[in-house]
Every structure is written in structure tokens, then in C-alpha cells.
Amino acid sequence: MSTPTDLPSGLVTFVFTDIEGSTRLAQLLGPGYRPVLREHRRLLRRTLASTEGAELLTEGDSFFIAFSDAAAALTACLTAQLALTGHDWPSPESAPRVRMGLHTGYAEPRDGEYASPEVHRAARVAAAAHGGQVLCSAATARHADPLPAGASLLDLGLHRLRGFDDRERLFQLVAPGLERQFPRPRTADAVAHNLPTQVTTFIGREAERAELDRLMRQHRLVTVLGAGGAGKTRLAVELAACVVESYPDGLWFVDIATVTDPGLVAFAVAAVLGLRPEPGRPMVDTLVEYATDRRMLIVLDTCDAQPAASAELISRLLAGGGGVRVLATSRESFGLPGEVVWRIPPLSVDPRPDGAQSDAVALLLDRTVAARGGRQPHPAEEADLWRVVQRLDGLPLAIELAAARLRVLSAGQLAERLDDVLGTLDAGRDDPTPPPVEGDWSGNQEDTVDLVAAATGASPPTPATRAVRRSAAERHLTMQATVTWSYRTLGPRAARLLRWLSVFAGPVDLATVQWLLDDDPLDPLSVLVDKSMLLAEPSAAGSTYRMLDPIRAYAARRLAEAGEERTARDRHVAWSTHALERAHLGPDGRPVTLSLYALDPLAGELRAALRWCATGGSARAGLRLAGGLDQWWRERGLAREGRLWLFRLYGRIAETGEVIPEAELAAAYHLHSLHAGADGELAEELRFSQRAEAAARQAGEAGLLARVLAGRAAPLVDMGQFVEAERVCREVIDWAHEQGVMGDALFAVFSLAELLWQRGALDEAAELLGAARPIEAARPVERGRRSVDMLLGMVALARGDLVAAHEHLLVALRSRLSHGFHGRACDTVDAIAVRCAAGGDPLTAARLFGAAQATRASMRCTPGIHDAYWSQRQAEVRGRLGDGAFDAAYQEGSELSLEEAAALALRVEHPDLAADSTRFTTPAPPVAP
């Protein structure tokens, strides 16, 4: 091998190598890693000794070599890989997997080194490779002649190297004896994942991460078990973030705690994967088929929220394909074949052997600094901080709560309180009666021990076991005990407020707390914030108050024990109904244009209220809530969830015999029909449309009957019966006009306009829509959709009037997006894509088509009557651009959010501003539907 001073110049081929996963290999082998590393270096140097390569740098497990000949460099890499593969390593696990990357470019050495971007490009090529793989750039591929005997270069396509703006075509060296199958290169086109971004630092857990990583590499299903607040989710996310590149088909995080019904577990996973339901096919079958040939990791969090449904889904996924792995967090195991159960331990409370602080103290210090506004604890508090974490036994959530308390207490004061609570929670005290405290605590020490046993999953302690528990220092505080301690210190008003706030699913503001109590809440609210039972989150609009889930569960249990659950939950339903009504009104109490964004923050609370209505409350109130979310379900891609809530409410009606007025039943059935149509369930759509009509006729309300009848065309359109649908629309419109309820028949007007547009009756469609404009403008629930402008834009497209089309469609898009009608905004983006294609901008058209389809797919909604039209227009754009250019632009668009796609559409130049505008000369050719 040449010396570093004898460096090639001119056209130089640079080679970088390193061991893939060297850190993990070192952890695995321990002292045995050094001999492996030494042997790896010897083999590489021996194989490179016969070449003209100049070794510039060897650091750790990395080599950097320069060659004057590209073919010689590739030959050297092939020889080195074969030597590594054929070597007799101590064990299969200890064999190093070396990745190699080559790039060729012009460079001149100075002072024994190269200062050239070509070096950095070569390093990035190597970083894109996997262990055992040899990658080279297109420049190396061009100059590598001849290739080694029997070798060839496999074109892997264009990739964007990290740190470079352009795309580099990469090639893989293929030869007998080399592994051929690898995941896609590790380039800036990142591996797909949706791991949540953490806002706080992750402290400690090195040993636990290494152990869990080892289990994940050896087993396909690993379940992390632990009590609430043990840190299961955070550890799982941190581990997953370290292995994301090991799964070429993605790493996907799904929080089961957000799933409101067992039947929606598979849909939650499918939504994360970007899959849509297939009509007539169970969602789990679609998931299994998708996962069969893929290598991916699914992180299922909080599976104890839906244990049976989670277990069934995991079993099907693992049986369906060998490349799927599942990392689950739960409070109970699934009992599935092949499941490895790993219990998360508390954070270490003892100092490390090197004298460094323990993980538990490090976490408490980090969170205390944040709680105290960036101020470090006083050095005199260190001993008391250690006492705190010792008494909390290293439970992360308990430490988080303790740090929040340190906002108002010193570490010594907190330690004293924890000492006291350990004594009072000790079930083996001679005096079983706790000291009197404020609040409505009525239990004794044995009750508390039973609560602790329940929280940890243990059996209730026997009297003999209780006697052993005399030493408080031997016992640890679970989250149940921690919250019990806090609860016991509350006065009657604060304790009642905590119980009643447990019915809320998310943060609440001061007005909501006051509404709930019908009293000034400031005093009890301050107590709960000071005792960290509630988290105060200040903002410019005012503080909100959030309860941690373990505390909410505890408070809900206390609510039921106090006999207050029905009253509190009915009060929450009333609040939810009031909040839903307020979302439709302005500050002056008068109706305003409906914005679905006003409903988004209420979704969690409305689901909680619906759950109570369907299980223990009033189904009639539940139907009212579901109706208030009418358009929101569909515009957020949640039509299936809306249907499931309605089914549950029907079951509640059957269970209780609650009398529901026919008018309210008709409205619910009509809503159900619309949801079913959006979800592709045509038979269900027609069935509930018929039920809605029957109930509406019984009710005898003309406006209600007009709304229901106006929806009858939808199932006919979905079934392709366009002539019959048009007849129905005309009959409904004529009848509504006679009854003076045309506003309630707007859906029929829009359906008829679409049918007329489809068969080319453009003048009649335009006249119909013109007459509908003032009716739409007078209805706050409909006017934000701007359906008149959308359809007039479609008519203008069909006429070839790009100016009118442009103006109508942009008005519709602005309104739909600004009022939260995301599903309908997708249609408008598609229409603007057609306008771009007709105006000579096929690239923008392809991008917008891709964006609309991606958003629609993520929302699991159908394009409806326009489906064939969009497809035809896309095919025309593809024909104009060619497959390659169209696919690239379409893919670029699919990566845009709906807001970004809308911004792109709104930037489209007005036809009159274009240099070649023909508005006042030759009309553009019609764009027929």
C-alpha cells in the first residue's frame, strides 16, 4: 500500500468503509470486540496491500482510501468483502458487516490530505450503504472499466445524499459471493416513520435500552409491561428511534389509548399506514395483506385500552408475514404464542459505580430545573433529592409529579411529606386509624394497601403479609399510592372538583371549570394546581388545566364511589351540547358560518360524552351530539366512527326503551345514511335513507322531510342510477319549492347540478346554481362549503372558460380550507389541477392531483361522482408529460400537506395575467366531463 504522502491526483476514486452497527456489536461482544476489530483491520489492509490504494485515515472501525483507478478500487472492495465473508470469526454474531462507498472525481492533494467536496460525496455514498454492501456513484460506474470478473453494477436509481441538494444515481456492486438483497439505501429520502417528537430530554435507561434492543432483534413480539407512569411509552419510542433505519418499510407508532371502540383498533393502525377500508372486506384482512411482504416495526402503545382487539390484531399480523415485528406497551400481557414479556424496572436510585448521580436523581434534577423556570436546585438540596427518589422508588411519573411540586416546595419539605405518607400508607402500623385530614377520605390503611395491590396487579395481602410491611422504607410508592396521598390532603371542595373534572377527556379552561361547579372555582383550582393534581398551562388566551391520565382514572374511581358519577357525567354531556351549540354562534350569540375547526378541539370531549350516552346516559342526548358533528365526521375521514357511535346509541335505545321523537330519529337515520355513503357501504346507505324518509313523514315537518328526501339521490348516484337520481332530485326540488323550504333542499339542488354537468347540460346547471347562490349564502351551516362556486367552476371547465373556472374554484378552495372542509377541499384541488392542465401547466396539474389523492387516501374518503372525471384528466396529463415526469411530479405533490397543496393551487396565475392569454381571442377548447 502506498504511503499517505504518495497521493493520487486528478481523477481520484475515494473509498470509505466502516462496520455497520459497530456500537451495538461492541456492546454485544464486550471484551471480545477488540480482537474482532483488530482482525477486521488486518483483513482490509491485506486485501488492499496488492492495490495502489493510499490509506489516508483509519479511525475506530473506519477506513478512508484514495485510488488513482476506479476499477482497481472496486476490485479492492470486492476482494475485501469476500475476505470478510470467508473469514472464520469466533461466532456468527461476531462477524462484522462492513459497508463500503466509492465516488470518483477530480481532486488535488495538499499537505497530505484532500480538501474537496468529492471526498464528502464519497463519505455520503458510504453512509447510504448497508453492512456487506458496496455502493458507488455514477461517476465511479462510468470510469470502472473493466469490472472484476463475474461482477456487475446494479442501478439503484436516484437518491439525494445527505448534505447535497442534487440527486446522485447509486450503483450496487454485484458479484458471486456477495450478498445481493439489501434495504433501500440510507439516503436523505428518509425511512418512513411517525414516531412522536419528544419535548423533554430522555434520562438514563442505557441498560434497559440495550436489553430491550436485544429482545427486539431476537423476537417478533415484545410486550413492555409496567404500571401506569413507569415510562413504558417513552422507552419504547426512544428505542424505536434508534432502529428506524433497520426497517425499510417503515416504523409506525399507534396509540391505542385514542381508540374509542374495539372495532376501530385495526382502523387506527391502517390510518397510520395510509390504508383505506375496502368495501365488503374486514380492515384486518387489508392490513395483513399489506404487511405480508414488508419489513416493518409497529409500536402499539397502551394496548390495555383495548386488550382483546389488540391481541387479535397482533396475532393476525404476525401470522400473515414474517417481516412484521411488534413492540407493544401494556399493563397486561396478551398471552400470545411467541410473545416475550419484558417488565420495565423503576429507574435506578443508587449512585453509579463511577460516582455519577443515579438515573432517578438525574430525571428529578432535569424536571425540577424546568419546573423552577431554569433555576438549578441548591447544592444543599442534593441529599433531600436523593431521599425523594428513594421514597418514590424510581417511578418516572411519580418523579415528574414530585418535580412539579418542587415548584413551590423545597426538596426537604417534599421529602418530609413523602416520609409521612409512607408511614400513613404502611398497612402494618399498630394504629390502623390514619390521622384526621381534610377531605372525604374514609378508608383506613388496609384499604390503601389493597389499592396498592390492585395497582400493581398483585393479590390482596394477607394479614401475615401486612405484618411484614411495618417498615415503610421497604415499601415503594405506586402511582395509586402517590395519587392517594395527594388526594388525602385535599379539602372537600378541591376533592369534589378533582372527581368531577375526571369526566373531561382533555384540558379545560377556567370558564369550563366554573360552569361545571356553578361556583367560583379559583380556590379549589389553585389547590389542585399547587398539589400537581392538575397541570396549569398558561397561554396568551388564558390558562388551561390538564389532568394526567393516571390521576384521571383514580379520580373517576372516586367519583363512582362517591355516588356522583351520573350527575357529573350528565353535567358533562350538557356542557358538551352547549359547547357544540356555541361553535355555531358568534360572540353576539347569532349564527355564523360553520367552521369545522371550531369542532376539532371539542372532539375528545364529545367522544367522552357519547361514550356515557351509549353506556349509562341518555341516547337521545347522544343522538343530538352525533348530529352536531354531522359534517365533521365525514370531512375528517371519520364516517365509520360516526356510524359506530350511532349503532351503539341505537342499542342503548333498545336497552332502555327511551322514547325518541320521530323527527330526531329521522335526523339520525339521515346522518347515518350520509356516513354510510362516505364509507362506501351502499346497502347500508340506502337502508337508512329509507328509514329516515319513513320517520320524517311520521314527524310531519316539511323542512326535515325536504332534507331527508334531498339525500335520496346520493345512494342512487353511488349505485350508478343517474337517470333515476335526476328524477328524484327534480321531484324534491319542486316539492320543496311548493312548501317554501328550498333551503332544506339544497343538497338536491347540488346533486342535480352535478348530474346535469355530467351529461353536458351546462346551461341548465349554471342557471340552477345561480338561483341557489342566495339560498346557500343565507344558510350558515352550508355557506362555508361554497358548493355553488365549486360547481360553477366545474361548469366553466366543461365550457372551456378558464377565467370563470379559475375565479370560482379559487373562491371555493379558500372558503373550504379556511372553514375546515378538508374532504371537499380535495375535490377543489383536483378541479384546479384540471384548470392547470387546460391552461398549459401539466406539471402543476400532476402535483395537485398527487396532493389531492394523498390527502383523500389519508382521510379514507371517496371522490364520489367526479371519480371517473379526475381519472380521465390525470390520464391526459400523463400522456402529455410522459410516465417519468408525471410520476415524479405526482409523487412530489403526494408529499404535500393539504394546506401546502392549497397554497400551491392559490398561487396559480390568473389566465388574464398570462402572456399568452386567449380570453379575448380564441376560446380554449372545452374540457368535457
From TrEMBL:
SUPFAM superfamilies registered for this protein in UniProt: Nucleotide cyclase (SSF55073), P-loop containing nucleoside triphosphate hydrolases (SSF52540), TPR-like (SSF48452)
Protein name, entry field: Adenylate cyclase
Gene3D superfamilies found in the cross-reference section: Nucleotide cyclase (3.30.70.1230), P-loop containing nucleotide triphosphate hydrolases (3.40.50.300), Tetratricopeptide repeat domain (1.25.40.10)
InterPro entries attached to this UniProt entry: A/G_cyclase, HTH_77, Nucleotide_cyclase, P-loop_NTPase, TPR-like_helical_dom_sf
Species classification: Bacteria, Bacillati, Actinomycetota, Actinomycetes, Micromonosporales
An annotated GO BP: intracellular signal transduction
Domain Guanylate cyclase residues, every copy: 13-126
Pfam families named among the record's database cross-references: Guanylate_cyc (PF00211), HTH_77 (PF25872)
GO molecular function, one term: adenylate cyclase activity
